[in-house]
Design goal:
CATH topology: Arc Repressor Mutant, subunit A
CATH superfamily: Winged helix-like DNA-binding domain superfamily/Winged helix DNA-binding domain
Helix content: 40-55%
Oligomer: single chain
Number of domains: 1
CATH class: Mainly Alpha
Shape: globular
CATH architecture: Orthogonal Bundle
Order of helices and strands: EEHHEHHEEH
Length: 119
């Protein structure tokens, strides 16, 4: 496949393009947590204690801009915001599930035990 430009960034293949959308340390774990339920910011933060507030906010914004999640703001005091997965996000879950399963296989091959709380 020939190289292509998207948002002024040069990509060399579709895998690179896809990983730029959902790759990194936090996007896949966020999507994974939203695959079966709607969560508020605080619930996501509590479930991922090592992510900083700034990083969680950034990742949520990027996932929303790319169409993987939806952000719903309710007009109440204090503000209530919920995040849910979109159809595009659900398609990504199929890929994430395959990567996750492959990661678990590799962990076994390298003699690494599966974490007790694996989400």
């Amino acid at each position: 496949m020939p190289e292509f430009l998207f948002n002024n960034k040069l990509y060399y293949n579709p895998v690179e393009f896809a990983m730029d959308r959902i790759g990194g340390t936090w996007k896949m774990p966020i999507l994974w947590r939203l695959k079966d339920k709607i969560l508020r910011y605080g619930e996501l933060k509590k479930d991922m204690p090592r992510i900083t507030d700034k990083m969680l906010t950034t990742q949520l914004r990027e996932l929303e801009e790319e169409g993987f999640i939806t952000r719903t703001v309710y007009p109440v005091v204090p503000p209530k915001v919920e995040y849910s997965i979109t159809e595009r996000g659900k398609k990504a879950i199929m890929v994430i599930d395959q990567i996750r399963n492959y990661g678990l296989e590799l962990m076994k091959e390298f003699g690494i035990e599966e974490p007790a709380k694996d989400k």
